[in-house]
Write a structure and sequence with these properties.
The chain has about 190 residues and is an alpha+beta fold. The chain is built from seven helices and five strands, in the order ααβββββααααα. It has helices at about 5-10, 10-15, 80-90, 100-115, 115-125, 140-160, 165-180, and strands spanning about 25, 30-45, 45-55, 60-65, 75. Helix 4 (about 100-115) runs parallel beside helix 6 (about 140-160) and helix 6 (about 140-160) packs across helix 7 (about 165-180). The longest helix has 22 residues, at about 140-160. Residues about 1-15 have low confidence and may be disordered. InterPro entries: CarD-like/TRCF_RID (IPR003711), CarD-like/TRCF_RID_sf (IPR036101), CarD-like_C (IPR042215), CarD-like_regulator (IPR052531), CarD_C (IPR048792).
């Protein structure tokens, strides 16, 4: 029997992304998971290679065919540069759209599920409420928490810290930005 490396040949890298057991990966709809196993299964007479991903927070295991990893948007953790850009996004002035909440909620959900770090950071920034600001609705808070958790999990995996520590770092950045942008609104 031949080894996996010789079976795949030199063209395999061009066809599919390559992840190893133990790698952290980002799956757009579920966030950060870890490759816990590479499996071979026979399904309908076809041999299939699968990445087995474990998402600890959701207590979920997902199997992704190796040849579909790229098309579903699965990716390695972001680069340091991408993470720095996302953190810079958090420091920006929140953009408040005046469209109906249901429409905005759909847009926010789409950004979160895109897996794009900059888009997720925009949702976090735009939905953040400082202690001195009006309270969020339940659904706003749910979307904010989902986006913040998604961003924090990737930051935590990159910085090798736990999610609460990463989340606190994000909230510190947001509070500092809110202090700058909200002082314009406070009557003198």
């Amino acid at each position: 029997m031949t080894s996996d490396a010789t079976q795949k040949g030199p063209f395999m890298a061009a066809k599919a992304l390559s992840f190893d057991v133990g790698d952290y990966v980002v799956y757009p709809k579920h966030g950060v998971g870890r490759v816990i196993e590479l499996q071979k299964q026979e399904i309908a007479g076809t041999s299939l290679e699968l990445y087995v991903l474990r998402f600890e927070k959701e207590r979920m295991t997902l199997r992704v065919p190796t040849n579909k990893a790229e098309s579903v948007g699965m990716r390695k953790l972001s680069s340091d540069k991408t993470m720095r850009e996302a953190m810079e996004t958090l420091k920006g002035k929140p953009k408040v759209k005046r469209t109906m909440w249901s429409r905005r909620a759909q847009e926010y959900e789409a950004k979160i599920n895109s897996g794009d770090l900059a888009s997720i950071a925009e949702v976090v920034r735009d939905l953040f409420r400082a202690d001195d600001q009006p309270e969020q609705s339940y659904s706003e808070r749910q979307i904010f928490e989902a986006a913040c958790s998604r961003l924090a999990r990737e930051l935590a995996a990159m910085e090798e810290v736990d999610e609460p520590k990463a989340q606190e770092k994000i909230l510190d950045i947001l509070r500092a930005a809110a202090a700058i942008y909200n002082k314009d609104k406070v009557p003198a």
